[in-house]
Specification:
Blueprint (H helix, E strand, L loop, with lengths): L26 H4 L4 H14 L3 H11 L11 H34 L8 H4 L3
The structure holds iron/sulfur cluster.
Iron/sulfur cluster binds next to helix 2 and helix 3.
Length: about 120
């Protein structure tokens, strides 16, 4: 995405000299609020941009909240971030449960030994 203020490519992780398809588009398209403008901007990203994935990662990492970046609208990126946070929280909770279960298992007394006459045929 081009910086909306000075029309220079944003200093994201794009290789030098590689520009997104939005360089040649009207920046207002990428910051429009109508459904039509969002759809049109998303199409530019998804159908014509060779740095879509890099742009999307940059937008998510940098917390870009406004506009279409990497082929996704503000709303879609917000959902991605919130699902990611939820996933991280669920994984953290599962790890805590796992640690608790392991600690409990290591504190448990060893299983009782069977009398010799019951194990001699084994
Ligand atoms: S993915 Fe979209 S916003 Fe990003 S550089 Fe390409 S055209 Fe611009």
């Amino acid at each position: 995405m081009n910086d909306q203020l000075n029309d220079e490519p944003v200093g994201c992780a794009l290789p030098r000299g590689v520009l997104g398809a939005c360089v040649e588009a009207d920046p207002r398209l990428f910051f429009g609020t109508s459904r039509a403008s969002i759809t049109a901007a998303v199409r530019v990203c998804r159908e014509r941009c060779v740095v879509q994935a890099t742009c999307l990662v940059h937008a998510l990492d940098a917390g870009q909240r406004l506009g279409v970046w990497g082929g996704y609208s503000e709303e879609e990126r917000r959902l991605m971030v919130s699902l990611r946070r939820r996933r991280d929280a669920e994984v953290a909770a599962a790890r805590a449960r796992e640690r608790a279960l392991r600690a409990r298992a290591s504190d448990a007394p060893p299983p009782p030994r069977l009398p010799r006459h019951l194990t001699s045929g084994l």
